[in-house]
Design goal:
Strand 3 and strand 4 form a beta hairpin. The protein has seven helices and six strands. The model has no long low-confidence stretch (mean pLDDT 89). It is mainly alpha-helical.
């Protein structure tokens, strides 16, 4: 399977953290038209890049979570275990939504929803049940176990990335791109903490073009 042909396998990785790049596996986050305008955190994914389990594998390969041989092996397993693959994708989308919800609540100065934290904690419990201490070059190291045929293996690393970010990073630098129909999340690690856009080449340039067109013409 050629994973690079899938949008998830060639998307921009601008989040600054693995978990944020995972949240950004959409074309954008837009307000849910079915919700009240007073609920700014109610959104829906636009142009989702994770439409089947193979998209999830393509993204994992693109981000380095999987090697080519590992990705191909998981794809073969997914064809053989279709129901388990579908369940893994369903969990992935739920985890993505929970991480997004927690992060956006923090950005807007609100407490994260208990349901989002509960879901993230459930995935963390699964992930932490898959690690053990192993021997490293100088110290003991954490190793992932039972990885070869586990269709949900990428979720362990994503949940772990989210927990590490939420407990160790400066969350005042967590940002939501203001680009039209975007809403991608990123961690601003610039020296002056003035990064505004998910990517200057896309949302940043589009905003410049809009501002230019809105200028009064002589």
């Amino acid at each position: 399977m050629n994973f690079s042909e899938r949008p998830a396998g060639r998307m921009n990785l601008t989040g600054g953290r693995l978990c944020l790049d995972f949240v950004n596996t959409v074309g954008g986050w837009t307000p849910d038209p079915a919700m009240d305008k007073g609920a700014p955190l109610s959104v829906i994914a636009r142009a989702d890049k994770l439409n089947d389990y193979f998209d999830l594998v393509a993204w994992s390969l693109h981000t380095g979570l999987l090697g080519e041989r590992e990705a191909q092996a998981l794809a073969r397993e997914a064809r053989r275990r279709e129901k388990e693959a579908a369940a893994a994708l369903k969990r992935a989308l739920a985890l993505r939504g929970a991480i997004y919800g927690v992060c956006v609540a923090i950005i807007h100065g609100s407490d994260p929803e208990a349901s989002d934290l509960d879901l993230l904690n459930r995935e963390l419990n699964i992930a932490h049940g898959r690690v053990r201490l192993g021997v490293g070059e100088q110290n003991c190291v954490w190793e992932w176990t039972d990885t070869k045929s586990s269709l949900d293996r990428m979720l362990w690393r994503i949940a772990d990335s989210a927990a590490e970010m939420l407990t160790t990073d400066d969350l005042t630098r967590l940002r939501e791109c203001p680009g039209e129909d975007c809403g991608w999340l990123f961690l601003d690690i610039s020296k002056n903490s003035r990064r505004q856009w998910c990517d200057m080449r896309t949302c940043g340039n589009l905003a410049k073009v809009r501002r230019f067109r809105q200028r009064p013409q002589p």
